[in-house]
């Protein structure tokens, strides 16, 4: 791999990590400003918005980058520019259409969300905040195409910087806007959340500003490349977009999975809670489920996203070359490393659910209970993303649609009955069952078409489970001791508890991994290089 590509991948990964970290920690002040009703309203608007964004843009940057890179490699630069010019028009049109659809469907979505009954918030409140966030759809698809264009030229800086700027601008507008509306202007909660959701549009403008600046700086170089175009390939726009759609479609379905599961909760949760006499608590409980705990649970899934983006090309290469040994090695490595990193993370999050929830939001029994059972579901989120990426790598992406639809059907069928039985936790159980069915289908497809044996993963997996159990017991003992002197109900003391217990658990886990050489089997010589950089090994 070239140093330029390595550098570009590092920059893009760093930008994504910074963006996600910012997206996690802003919820602490945001929750303090707007409370549980505010975060519920915010979640009501963001779930349908995320679905529309996933349909409009998921896979577009990657598909455009792959297409442009392919033709740049044979010095047919005009083909990529042709896609870029027509794509800007098409993505602008799709953005405007998406905006109009969501804007005018907002009352319908709000009615479905609350079942026509006003709880702590009204149908009109939900309609207002959905319409406020829908404006972002006008510019996000347009922006995603520009990012893909730069990535196709192996320039990852514009995407990374624009992601971080978008997130910073959005968060500042969210926090400042909500605070000013509630505390300075003494406005309503609905007005404050409308400003907060409209921040997605403002963040998009900030990102576009960065991208336009990069375009201005690099246009002379891009035009010079165009002058060197060979001009031997004449490809129609129809053929161009057929290739783009074929590549982007699987990413659309993977990107839709989580928002669609959340949307099922959104349109069934209030009805189910009302049926068991808990309608008055539905909005607060939904906030815990789809905003507060979900923001924490999704953290380990970021790793899976990174895996799925980098996995496809190498798996495709090994599969097309019929290099069975290399394919099996890559799949072994992926499944094991993912389990090695996510299992202890979710186990620790489940164990420390009470102080973690207190640290980010407030001390709340329902938040602790839901987070404790929701945390392990992050493993399922991660494995769905990765198995779907592997299926694309072996050219069996059509089964991604089957597995996703089957998982959604399970979720939709069981959600209301399980909520009636277990209240908020029932929605988590339904999500876990839906994802489990989808993953089993994916694994069956991988075993059948890639002829992949799971024996090594199962053996190593048992070892990872054993180490995680040891870590859990050690951290649990430390947790019991620390809570004698410190209270998980206090945010500052909760922070100390989390730091001490996490350090103890991680120490035990990595000690066992080093003693048994498991960490070397998974990461190889990279571990020694990392230790030398940290001066932990000579």
Automatic annotation (TrEMBL):
The membrane-spanning stretches of this chain are 12-34, 46-68, 88-109, 129-146, 167-185, 191-216, 244-264, 296-316, 337-361, 373-394, 401-422, 428-450, 462-486, 492-512
Q: Where does the record say this protein resides? A: Cell membrane
Membrane topology according to the record: Multi-pass membrane protein
Source taxon at top rank: Bacteria
Q: What are its GO cellular component terms? A: plasma membrane
| Presence of keyword Magnesium | no
Q: What is this protein called?
A: Cell division protein
- One Pfam entry name: Polysacc_synt
Which organism is this entry from? Sporosarcina globispora
Keywords attached to this Swiss-Prot or TrEMBL record, sorted alphabetically, are: Cell cycle, Cell division, Cell membrane, Membrane, Transmembrane, Transmembrane helix
PANTHER family noted in UniProt: LIPID II FLIPPASE MURJ, PST FAMILY PREDICTED COLANIC ACID TRANSPORTER
Looking up CDD domains in the UniProt record yields: MATE_SpoVB_like
InterPro entries from the UniProt entry:
PG_synth_SpoVB (IPR024923), Poly_Biosynth_Transport (IPR050833), Polysacc_synth (IPR002797)
Q: Which GO terms describe its biological process?
A: cell division
